[in-house]
Design brief:
This protein is α/β, with parallel strands linked by helices and 310 residues long. It has nine helices and 15 strands. The structure holds oxonic acid (OXC). Keywords: Cytoplasm, Flavoprotein, FMN, Oxidoreductase, Pyrimidine biosynthesis.
């Protein structure tokens, strides 16, 4: 009922973690791999190990979360070894997330993956909002175009891009025009809504240490923005480019809405952080319930079929 085909691999369901959540260590990744999740993605890897920003750098709120992790990770080799190892023991579809601290590092990372034995999917994170002094690449249209043009002169493996949220129709138009030029496997919308501010009223203080308390928002706060970005890119991108919907998934209804907007896969971040990997069995059950009530027997029955008001 929930089965989904991605790159000719049949997944039991369209759900997976959002990069950064529950995917930093081999233990966490194994737990994801052995959970109900249809697939998993690794924590965004940089070339070298990064400690990330000073703590506290993550905070759950009633309506979601705020984080300014600063790309802490064990370095590309740690994650590349992990996915190659699992690939050798038969893993069919894996997602490896990467980003560089510079243009050269971005190109270098993808060159290394291209030359490696890894045959899975690479998620190119162009949208981390939390490295002080580093703007989000995908808010710089020219840079994104230049980077993708160079990458696709040598990269032949499946590549997706993780985008920040856009808030202007002209930006959807401009970004889609750029993305449609490249043989991308998918676009993942959205990364956290950058640089929000959450206040502890009693202490009259911010709740995370980096950047004076500014951090990326996740959870309920961002679902309308996430759905709009999924819908906008689905309407604009070549059908050959799949869409992964990320942002604001609390229950099965939210998963249904992402798919109704056009998502092929749906990622869960904040709610996975709060609930643990059991969230995937809860969400699949809830989604099946909703589909039954509505008389749908497969995701294709309603994917991308959001109605407008004529
Ligand atoms: O791309 C990212 N998005 C986030 O919200 N946080 C992490 C991070 O800060 O590492 N990276």
């Amino acid at each position: 009922m929930l089965k989904t085909n991605f790159l000719d691999v049949e997944l039991s369901n369209p759900l997976m973690n959002a990069s950064g959540v529950h995917c930093m260590t081999i233990e966490e990744l194994d737990e994801l791999a052995n959970s109900e999740a249809g697939a998993f993605v690794t924590k965004t890897a940089t070339r070298d190990y990064r400690a990330g920003n000073p703590e506290p750098r993550y905070y759950d709120t009633n309506l979601g979360s705020i984080n300014s992790m600063g790309l802490p990770n064990n370095g590309l080799d740690y994650y590349l070894d992990y996915v190659i190892e699992r690939q050798k023991s038969g893993a069919k579809l894996q997602f490896l997330s990467v980003t560089g601290m510079s243009y050269e590092e971005n190109v270098g990372l993808l060159k290394k993956i291209q030359e490696s034995e890894y045959e899975g999917v690479t998620e190119f994170n162009l949208s981390c909002p939390n490295v002080p002094g580093k703007p989000q690449i995908a808010y710089d249209f020219e840079l994104t175009d230049k980077l993708l043009a160079e990458v696709f002169t040598f990269f032949t493996k499946p590549l997706g891009v993780k985008l920040p949220p856009y808030f202007d129709i002209a930006h959807f138009d401009e970004m889609a025009k750029i993305l449609n030029k490249y043989p991308l496997t998918y676009v993942n919308s959205v990364n956290s809504v950058g640089n929000g501010l959450y206040i502890d009223l009693d202490k009259e203080q911010v709740v995370i240490k980096p950047k004076g308390g500014f951090g990326g928002l996740g959870g309920e706060y961002i679902k309308p923005t996430a759905l709009a970005n999924v819908r906008a890119f689905r309407e604009r991108l070549n059908p050959s480019i799949k869409i992964i919907g990320t942002g604001g998934v609390i229950n099965g209804k939210d998963v249904f809405e992402h798919i109704l907007c056009g998502a092929d896969l749906v990622q869960v971040g904040t709610t996975l952080h709060k609930e643990g990997v059991s969230v995937f069995s809860r969400l699949t059950k809830e989604l099946q319930e909703i589909m039954k009530e509505k008389g749908y027997s497969s995701l294709e029955d309603f994917r991308g079929k959001l109605k407008v008001i004529d």
